[in-house]
Amino acid sequence: MVTAALAKERGFEVHALTVDYGQRHRIELASAKAIAERLELATQVEIALNLRAFGGSALTDTMDVPKDGLGDDIPVTYVPARNLVFLALTAACAESAGARDVFIGVNALDYSGYPDCRPEFIQSFTETARLGTKSGIEGAPFTIHAPLQNMTKANIASECSRLGLDPAWSWSCYDPAPDGRACGQCDSCRLRRKGFVEAGIIDSTPYSV
Questions:
Q1: How confident is the model over 24-69, as pLDDT tens digits?
Q2: How far apart are CA 67 and CA 102, in angstroms?
Q3: Could you tell me the pTM of the whole model?
Q4: Residue 161 burial by Cβ neighbours in a 10 Å radius (0-12, 13-18, 19+)
Q5: What are the distances in angstroms from CA 147 to CA 71, 152, 191?
Q6: What is the CA radius of gyration of the chain?
Q7: Are 181 and 167 in contact (CB under 8 A)?
Q8: Were 199 and a residue from 36, 82, 157, 171 both cysteine, which residue would form a disulfide, CB within 3.0 to 4.6 Å?
Q9: Which residues contact 3 (CB under 8 A, 6 or more apart)?
């Protein structure tokens, strides 16, 4: 949500891509659609890619989502190569539309340690996209923008407020409660709440705990 709003603020016409990859927190799909409408994005396309066929993550398998706080290891909520897959799909979408700028909302400061959120990954993918696309080898490579990458969650919360966005429009929780509220205990919820507290901004998201 914040990344899309920043792209619009910079003068870009934003075309959003949402991936239904079989994630257990399916409410984020409805959230993405609503955000696209509220921000009046140019288009929003949803495609299905069933990563449940591979499993290997608490988000695409039957294992429990951890609720005991952040640890030192990459958690089981890591979805194998998710951002690599997402960026490849986005590059294909962008090339088909004649676009040359790709935005992704990864963060590498206050995060769970996922390897596909790091600056070196984004830099490497930029070169991969240049080498692996018609646009790239013909001299019109993609620019990959990651405006949140070096921000703390508090910085992101402050940007959310500055841009006039309602936090409750977005969805972060990995394991929604039965009543549809965010669990408040998974890594994603903990990091989100920490950011708003540190920024001194009220998070309007309803939590079950």
A1: 999 999 999 999 999 999 999 999 999 999 999 999 999 999 999 8
A2: 33
A3: 0.94
A4: middle
A5: 26, 11, 18
A6: 17
A7: no
A8: 157
A9: 103, 104, 105, 147, 148
